[in-house]
Every structure is written in structure tokens, then in C-alpha cells.
Specification:
This protein has about 425 residues and is mainly α. The protein has helices spanning about 30-45, 60-70, 75-90, 95-115, 125-140, 150-160, 165-175, 180, 200-220, 225-245, 285-310, 320-330, 335-340, 345-350, 360-375, 385-400, 405-410, 415-430; strands at about 255-260, 275-280. The chain is globular and about 70 Å long. InterPro entries: DHMBA_Reg_Transcription_Factor (IPR053175).
């Protein structure tokens, strides 16, 4: 069913500032338009897994589930709401945003009836999926007036699962075999592939990072012994990431397909054109897992150097800074893969043009958004990279139609709760 939306963006007529009429194509009925929105959603947001040993995909089982439930089910309505919202933003079509809002309001009323008086932990996986999609809708339409409404849906999911409202709470629920999430796969890790040693699984390593984060937030600057101990924990956990990486199969590795030469220009690199390798991956799920692990390692190095400065350990932390720059550049090499509609066309034209000509699927920007935002908050990341990543967030908001990306690009202070809630919603998509 998946099909790319062919509706053009509304742009001013040549020589004028007036926009054309925001009307639906006359040859399409309202019913056809809703079906096209559903097909556009499957194209833009779903990553089918073609090898379950290395990839979970993203919303992998959603399209067949919608077909079984029906094109007018709550499942389908939630998908349409997301599609209308993201296309309404990037195509400058308020009529699509109004359609999205009407569907959203209808679904909120439906959920209220289902949940009324019930123990949330007894609700079905169908309800969890709809709540996740409504959270995704709020991530898409987020703006300065309504910046963080997705937190409500993340909180609802957490209540259903009886976990903390965070992505690592979700990982823990999978580890414990929560029936709403595992669907009989309780032995499978959240992040594939399965290495074979539970202490080297990415799930376990990321969950241990939660402890380091919590300690970092409560330790006093004058507790030097505890700070040095935490620094050693961070260094040790970073080594665990390396061990995880060493156990990965060949299909999980990135492949370099091109090289962007430096441009001798006074202007900063445009989005997608950071000089260096261009990498591709088996699919966007695997690219996302790599970037999550890279950002986690940068976070650990940031903690290590900050503690070193506090306790004045006398080290210059050159190794950590070098590692972070390398990890950041590996992530930068994945950006064209995430954000372009056709990478072969991008590679063919990259010496001739300096901007992405055709933005890619929404899921690429969605999976890239939170990792690059975290890097923007780390002082160990070189300033020019942080500035470039901020431009990438702005671009994702403008060209992919993800409102939260625009908000994160503008934020002056770390938006921790928005980040955790947003990650939880998106990571749930790996399970559905």
C-alpha cells in the first residue's frame, strides 16, 4: 500500500507573494484522499524488517495490522492524522492540518471512552499502538504554543506499562518480558542483533548508563572519591560499547559509498554536505542503533572529562576528545542516508550542487533528531559540529515536517523531559 505523496507544496506564484488556493485535487473524493494519506504514512514512517536477526525495522507490523483492522479503524485514523500533519507542515497546506486535527480529536474521544474507569495496565497492545501514534502526531505538530504535549502520551504509555516515562524504562520492560511489548519474544533484546552474552547486549549497556546519569545529577562537586569512582564507571562502560561493537555481524556494519570533498568556501557546510565519507546501512533501524551507541559513548566521554576538570586529575583527556570527534564524524557520515530521498542521485550530483534537492522520508529525520540534539548539548563536541547539527535540526523541522526538531534547534536550555518523552515514543516504534 505504501506510496509517496505527490501533492506539491504551496509556493507563491512567480513575481507575487500570494499563495495558490489550498484546495484538494478536484478529481479526488474525501475517501480517496484519506486512503492516499494512509499510503503516504506507510511510505514515510514504516521500515519493514527484511532480516529479523539484525533489524526490528520501525512500525514493522503496522501496515498488515491496519489492513486486518480496516481502513477506518482507530489504527488507520491515527496513521492518517500523522500523515496529514507532517504533509500539512512541509507542504504549507493548512487544510491538511485541519484534517489531522479532526482525526486526532476523534481519537482522543475514543481513547477516553476505552480508558474510562479501567486499570491502564489491563489495556491491549492496540491501545498502546494508538497512543504511541498520537504521541508521534504531537511530536510532528509541536510549536512554540504547544511545545510538549507528546509528554502526555508518553506518560499514558508508561502508565499502561507501569514503567518510568523514559526510553530506558521501555528497554527494561522488554528485558522483563512485558506482554504488551514482546508478543511472545521475551528472550529477544530490544536492540538487535543478539550478541550471545547478556552483559554485552546493547540493552544492558544502555540501561547501566541510566545509573551513571542519575549519580551524575546528585553527586556533590566536593565528593572527590565518589566522582573518581563515577569516572571509572564511565570509562569501563565505554569499553563495554567497544566489546559490543566487536561482536556485531558484517551485515550490521556501515558501508562507505562516497566521499564529500572539502569546499573552499567562507560559508559553513549546508545540511548533508559535511566533508568526509558518506555511509549507508542495511536499513534505517540499524543506522539508528549505531547513532544511539555513538551518542551514548560521546555522553560518557563528556562525563569523564567534566569529572576530570572538577577533580583536577591532571589529564588532558586527548583520547576522549579524539574519540568524540571520530564518533561525531561517523554520525555526520550517516546524515545524507537519513535525509535524502534518493542517495544515488545525491552522490551523482554532490559535486554540482550544495543542497539536498529532494528531502527524504519523515522517518529518517525522526530517527536522527534526538541523537543530534543530544550531541548539541555536550561541551566536548567541537563547536563547529554543534552548530552544523543545529542547522540539521532546523532543516528537519522545515523540510521533513517535524515540529519538535524546530523547537529543539531554537532551545537555549536542555529540554530533558521533552527529549526523554520523545525518545520513548519513537523507540516504541521499534517494537510495533
Amino acid at each position: 500500500m505504501a506510496r509517496k505523496c505527490s501533492l506539491p507544496a504551496r509556493v507563491p506564484a512567480p513575481g507575487t507573494n500570494s499563495l495558490p488556493d489550498d484546495a484538494s485535487p478536484k478529481e479526488e473524493t474525501d475517501e480517496n484522499i484519506e486512503e492516499l494519506a494512509l499510503r503516504a504514512f506507510f511510505h514515510d514512517y514504516c521500515v519493514p524488517s527484511t532480516n529479523h536477526t539484525i533489524s526490528r525495522g520501525f512500525l514493522n507490523g503496522l501496515e498488515p495490522m491496519v489492513v486486518r483492522r480496516g481502513l477506518w479503524s482507530d489504527y488507520a485514523k491515527a496513521c492518517k492524522a500523522v500523515a496529514f500533519a507532517s504533509h500539512g507542515i512541509k507542504l504549507h497546506r493548512p487544510s491538511l492540518l485541519r484534517k489531522a486535527r479532526a482525526l486526532y480529536d476523534e481519537l482522543i474521544s475514543s481513547l477516553a471512552r476505552v480508558m474510562s474507569g479501567m486499570d491502564l495496565s489491563l489495556l491491549s497492545s492496540d491501545v498502546l499502538t494508538v497512543v504511541m501514534l498520537l504521541g508521534l502526531y504531537e511530536i510532528i505538530i509541536a510549536d512554540g504554543v504547544h511545545p510538549g504535549y507528546h509528554q502526555v502520551h508518553a506518560g499514558g504509555m508508561a502508565a499502561m506499562l507501569r514503567i518510568e516515562s523514559s526510553p530506558l524504562g521501555l528497554v527494561k520492560a522488554v528485558q522483563l518480558g512485558h506482554p504488551l511489548l514482546t508478543r511472545g519474544m521475551s528472550q529477544e533484546p530490544f536492540f538487535t542483533p543478539h550478541i550471545g552474552n547478556e552483559h554485552q547486549e546493547l540493552d544492558t549497556i544502555l540501561h547501566e548508563m541510566c545509573g551513571i546519569w542519575n549519580k551524575m545529577n546528585i553527586l556533590l562537586a566536593d565528593d572527590l572519591v565518589a566522582l573518581r569512582s563515577l569516572q571509572e564507571e564511565a570509562i569501563s562502560l565505554d569499553q563495554r560499547f567497544l566489546q559490543w561493537q566487536d561482536g556485531l555481524p558484517a551485515d550490521f556494519m556501515p558501508t562507505t559509498v562516497g566521499q564529500l570533498a572539502p569546499r573552499w568556501s567562507a560559508t559553513a557546510p549546508t545540511v548533508g554536505y559535511w566533508p568526509g565519507p558518506i555511509d549507508v546501512y542495511f536499513d534505517l533501524y540499524i543506522a539508528a542503533v549505531w547513532n544511539i551507541s555513538r551518542v551514548a559513548r560521546c555522553f560518557l566521554s563528556d562525563i569523564t572529562t567534566k569529572i576530570g576538570d572538577t577533580v583536577q586529575d591532571g589529564r588532558d583527556h586527548t583520547r576522549e576528545k579524539t574519540d568524540v570527534e571520530r564518533l561525531c564524524k561517523e554520525l555526520l557520515s550517516s546524515i545524507p542516508y537519513h535525509l535524502t530521498d534518493c542517495l544515488p542521485d545525491f552522490l551523482r550530483d554532490m559535486e554540482r550542487v550544495s543542497e539536498i534537492q529532494t528531502p527524504g522520508r519523515a522517518i529518517g529525520g525522526l530517527l536522527l533528531m534526538h541523537p543530534i540534539y543530544v550531541l548539541c548539548q555536550l561541551s566536548i563536541v567541537p563547536l563547529e559540529i554543534r552548530e552544523y547539527l543545529t542547522r540539521c535540526l532546523e532543516w528537519i523541522g522545515r523540510n521533513i515536517g517535524v515540529g519538535q526538531a524546530s523547537l529543539l534547534a531554537k532551545s537555549k536550555e536542555p529540554q530533558v523531559h521533552d527529549l526523554l518523552s520523545g525518545c520513548m515514543i519513537i523507540w516504541t516504534g521499534f517494537l510495533l
